[in-house]
Specification:
about 220 residues; mainly alpha; about 80% helix
Length: about 220
């Protein structure tokens, strides 16, 4: 059991540490990051209840509705909501990259508990696959979400703020849909699509990390000293 717990939580902790340590401008209080990670863990429980209700009460049980509504939409919306309610308006959210840190923390908290349940049901032999795909994909969805949260909070054009907040949900949702539908449509040949898709997410996700840093640096340079 100890080995299984380690295999379940290690990918999430490693990825969160990586994105946290990329914050070279003004690192967030570790207590805040841990808090958001815990919020992500706790978020898994109401999401599972809602997903169960959608399947049993609403009758949305086919694989396409599960991929789009029951998984991508529900999970990304509630992650977005928790970031907005607990981090977006917090005083510690004081530079654009902070959106990425907090969104990734919540996403990985959720993914870590999900990973734990999956490994209990399917065994430790699936741990590497889970780390490379589901856990890291949640982290990358969090990067895109956090990037647009950062733009929304610090944009110099107030009329664009709402659009950035909408993008913080819509873009991760679309990517999550594409991720899920790859396994639904491609069946045994899913790897032909998912490998280049994950490379795309990593490449452009890391570019978003750099852009958020650059944007934050410009903001810091304009502050009065």
């Amino acid at each position: 059991m100890i080995a299984l717990i380690g295999a379940a939580i290690a990918p999430g902790i490693a990825l969160l540490s990586y994105f946290y340590l990329r914050d070279t401008l003004e690192p967030e209080p570790i207590s805040m990051v841990i808090r958001e990670f815990i919020f992500g863990v706790l978020l898994a429980f109401p999401i599972m209840v809602i997903q169960y209700i959608i399947q049993t009460e609403w009758g949305l049980t086919n694989e396409y509705s599960h991929a789009i509504i029951n998984s991508a939409m529900i999970e990304e919306f509630f992650k977005w909501l928790v970031v907005f309610l607990t981090a977006y308006k917090h005083v510690e959210f004081d530079e654009p990259y902070d959106g990425i840190v907090y969104s990734v923390a919540i996403s990985l908290g959720f993914a870590t508990l999900e990973n734990f349940f999956y490994l209990i049901l399917n065994g430790e032999e699936t741990a590497l696959w889970r780390a490379l795909l589901p856990v890291s994909s949640h982290a990358l969805f969090g990067v895109w979400m956090g990037y647009y949260f950062g733009l929304g909070k610090f944009t110099d054009k107030p009329n664009r703020k709402q659009w950035k907040l909408v993008a913080a949900f819509v873009i991760p949702f679309v990517f999550h849909c594409l991720y899920n539908l790859t396994f639904t449509v491609m069946k045994d040949e899913w790897w032909l699509v998912i490998v280049p898709f994950m490379i795309f997410l990593w490449y452009h996700g890391l570019k978003k990390v750099q852009l958020a840093h650059d944007y934050g640096s410009k903001k810091a340079d304009t502050r009065p000293h």
